[in-house]
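[09:14] KT: can someone run the structure on this one? pasting the chain below
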Amino acid sequence: MKHGFVFFLVLISISAKAQSQETITKYLDSAWNKLPDAKNAAYYRTLEVTNQLSLVRTYYISGKLKDVTECDRDNPVIRNGKSLSYYEDGTLESEEHSVDGKETGVYKTYYKSGKPEKEMIRHPLPGVADDVFVHYYTEDGKDQISSGNGIVKVPIEGDFDQYEEIRDSLTVSLYNVHKTTQDTVYLTIEKIAEYRGGLSALARDVSASLRYPKSARRSGLQGTVFVSFVIDKQGMITDVEVLKGFDAACDDEAMAVVKSLKPWIPGESRGKIVKCRFVLPIKFKLRP
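[09:31] RB: done, structure tokens below
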């Protein structure tokens, strides 16, 4: 009787473990593109379904946890609960919360040292899209927006320093300053650059110029090319590059289309005309 009782408990344990087994769902490169296998992968993602929810985890290829997100049990694409992300050494990088796929509540990030970096409130009121800043600390613990206003230097790699201007606890602009030339390019500003004639004219001109590369057409390739470019103070397009593409010929065609566009109305910050960066998605879709 005693042995049978133990055996029964073991069966329950094995059954429960099998129902919530964690399985690998995809491999990803450093740019988060899906790969067919672990070769050249920087990360891999797993799924674990429990009685109450789904847990989606991303791991560094080393096997260390990068992030874990609570999702809808029947539709793991929908975030529904807490999300935590980690640096590769295991230090907490960020924590946030989502309800029915929408980020809401307190969002916190941390420096690699483990010290708090910033704290925000996501979508504090119904219909309000802006995130409200509560704190934005330097690594030595100084709050840079104690009064709700300030210009914060954002740590990034490369040739630029990045700055975020916060006014009344809201981001009003984000801009990069070249470390050598001091050239400034705005990423988000109060008055964004506008194509002459508006979005409908932009869509019309892109459609009129776009040609489907024959090689891509023959191979049945479809996808979206994300083209980044700078609109200078005269409204001219410069520094065109592909942020994310899917085929070399289509990438080249998308860049050529952007370069052929008419001049824009330049963006403004604090009433002054400034350079700003724009990202335009260009779709290549074959007709049935």
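[09:33] KT: thanks! The chain has a mean pLDDT of 88.
[09:34] RB: yep, looked fine to me
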